[in-house]
Amino acid sequence: MPGSSIKRSLGVELTRTIQESRVLLVGAGGIGCELLKNLVLTGFGEIHIIDLDTIDLSNLNRQFLFRHEHIKKPKALVAKEVAHKFQPKAKLEAYHANIMDKQFNVHWFQSFTIVFNALDNLAARRHVNHMCLAASVPLIESGTTGFNGQVQVIEKGKTECYDCNPKEVQSELFGESEDNPGVFDTSENAGNEHEIAELQREKKDLKEIRESMGSDDFSYKVFDKVFRKDIERLSGMKDMWKERNPPNALSWDQLTEQSSPLDSKTIVKVDQRPWSQPEAFIMFKESLDLLSKRFQALQETKASEDPEPVLEFDKDDEDTLDFVTATAILRSAIFDIEPKSKFDTKQMAGNIIPAIATTNAMTAGLCVLQAFKVLQGALSNAMVFLEKSGARAINTEPLNPPKGDCTVCSAATGYVVVDTKRATLNNIVEDVLQSELGYGEEISILKDSALMYDPDFEENLSKKLPELGFTNGASIIVVDEDDQDQDPRANLELFIVERTEPATGDEKPASLKDPITIARKPKTNQQPLPEDDNGPANGLVNPAKRKREGEDEDLTNGHVAKKIAGEPPSNSGGNNGVIVIDDEEGAGGKGEGAILIDD
Ligand SMILES: Nc1ncnc2c1ncn2[C@@H]1O[C@H](COP(=O)(O)OP(=O)(O)OP(=O)(O)O)[C@@H](O)[C@H]1O
Ligand SMILES: [Zn+2]
Predict the structure, then answer these.
(1) pLDDT band at 101 (very low <50, low <70, confident <90, very high)
(2) Is 29 annotated as a binding residue?
(3) pLDDT number for residue 533
(4) pLDDT band of 523, cuts 50, 70, 90
(5) What whole-number distance in Å separates Cα of residue 428 and Cα of residue 425?
(6) Is residue 28 within 6 Å of ligand 1 at its C-beta?
(7) CB atoms closer than 10 angstroms to residue 111
(8) Which of 104, 182, 354, 584 is in the most buried spot, having the most CB atoms within 10 Å?
(9) pTM of the model
(10) What pLDDT, in 10s, does the model give residues 47-60?
């Protein structure tokens, strides 16, 4: 659209604001390519594009900035080059890099007016969410699955953040946390002793089986528990089977006999028809054996302070796919369910949903419309109506305020100006936290999830900040541990701003850049962790729980490691859409109607 038509549609003021904006686009894939084209044609003044990947043949059907001759070239660079041709005046900058790299620190994020996420994974989405909150830059988060798409505006203090709602995480095949029988809090469960005893026994059984991993009878033990013992117990509950057929336990001996002429090398290639029970039995044993060996190798090579290894299901990992296909078929036989082929299992368990180019295009369009609202500071204004005869394809939901108990967006952010040549951790603790901010003695300081200081661990106090990794842009996490205080403060994340102007000699080695207010810690429903046996494996907050809920271990809920731990900060992702394009009844909870964008 030529400049004059944009001005006529959007008005002089918004057009100028758009021209003056400097935006960041994270991801140049399906949504990213569409979005970059939109941003360039809408006249955004300066656009930075980042993507870590190179172009693949399979991208070409929908990532239309890319052509055959671009295969293997960096997405970000090609996207920039091609988009530049649409609008030679546009100022574009490309990075072939991971957005989670340290160079893209909070100061860099602060240089943007708006950030657009066009990503495909939780970790990167959570990371950008965190950085945008810290930098107080509005984030437009988007995603699509098949015909469904979603756009969510995230603004610190005004809206929910990406982490306000827990996200689904990958399922674990090996490495679950059965070996922590202390997780049941018996005091809360008076009257349920019998069930608790059952659960404890179950955990013990599973633990014993796991401990036999690597021995000759490991697959027998797993089989016997899952496909015989548990099933016999279940079918013994007569009340459950009044109106349905009870499940049939499987027999190891019988399947061993039936499968004796079969060979896994042939079966593994059969992916279009369901395996027979004896075939599945062979593949169950084979894949379990391969995965066990892999798991044990991981256990042997891990450093003692590393967390227990976990094997995750991945549709493209043959062994995990064979394992899931085989166990699903054996289970189907038990419960009289129609068995599925390896190919079907890959689709179902791998959650493969084809990417639809038009969904990406519409979603990218909606991202720009949302950006207009952000630029106008009018998040709640109705703005655009699209019409499509027939079904109502676009719905909206009101923006929710931040969830009070979200540890990610309720954390306070501050900046501390530091003379890195002089400042020690003690300057942070005494001059900044205690004198300037009024913290008491009971505080802990973390870097990512590693403990750097608490009243029982003072070794680092005399060290210079850069020695501890606290360089320009890095963050210091402060946790108020005051037990006496009924209402401790929310976690504080203090970003280091390296002093650049020459020192006059009078200034303190470290001082707050601006005054900050720190709210009280959000009340969560989380049970305190048992301080038992192994304790949190790597000194972090109950890692099993964290994985299940996709929690961010950066800003833990106040429980701090009692030893120095080093683990990269994990981040991840949501579904709290503002605009929902929804082709079917149900997913968005809305029915039929016209296309409508209205909030
Ligand atoms: N941490 C990251 N830093 C930079 N770019 C990232 C990061 N994580 C993912 N991306 C990029 O985000 C884009 C997401 O695009 P999309 O969902 O279309 O995925 P794709 O990999 O291109 O396609 P598909 O997964 O459907 O085969 C990809 O180009 C990917 O390289
Ligand atoms: Zn939040």
Answers:
(1) very high
(2) yes
(3) 35
(4) low
(5) 5
(6) yes
(7) 12
(8) 104
(9) 0.67
(10) 999 999 999 998 99
Cα separation of 542 and 535, whole Å?
8
| Predicted pLDDT at 567 | 35
Q: Is the CB of 149 under 6 A from ligand 1?
A: no
| Residues 156-190 pLDDT 10s | 998 999 999 887 655 455 655 444 433 344 444 45
Comparing 407 with 283, which gets the higher pLDDT? Answer: 283
List of domains in the chain? 3-166+355-400+576-581 (3.40.50.720), 173-312+314-349 (1.10.10.520), 412-549 (3.10.290.20)
Query: What mean pLDDT is predicted for residues 547-574?
Result: 34
Handedness of CA 22, 64, 10, 391 (dihedral sign): negative
Closest ligand to Cα 124: 1
What spacing in Å lies between the alpha carbon of 575 and ligand 2's midpoint? Answer: 12
Q: Is the dihedral of CA 136, 166, 101, 56 positive or negative?
A: negative
The ligand with the least distance to the CA atom of 60 is: 1
Residue 412 has pLDDT above 80, yes or no: yes
The residue nearest atom 11 of ligand 1, judged by CA position, is 27
Task: Determine the Cα–Cα distance for residues 367 and 359; give it in Å rounded to an integer.
Answer: 12
Joined together, the tokens standing for residue 360 give 């990406």
Distance (Å) from CA 26 to ligand 1 centroid: 9
Q: Which residue has the tokens 């690597």?
A: 214
Going from the C-alpha of 250 to that of each of 87, 177, 256, 259, 330, the distances in angstroms are 66, 27, 11, 14, 8
Residue 547 burial (C-beta neighbours within 10 Å; 0-12, 13-18, 19+):
buried
Confidence of residue 201 (pLDDT cuts 50, 70, 90): confident
355 CB less than 6 Å from ligand 1?
yes
Q: With a 6 A CB cut-off, is 476 part of the ligand 1 pocket?
A: no
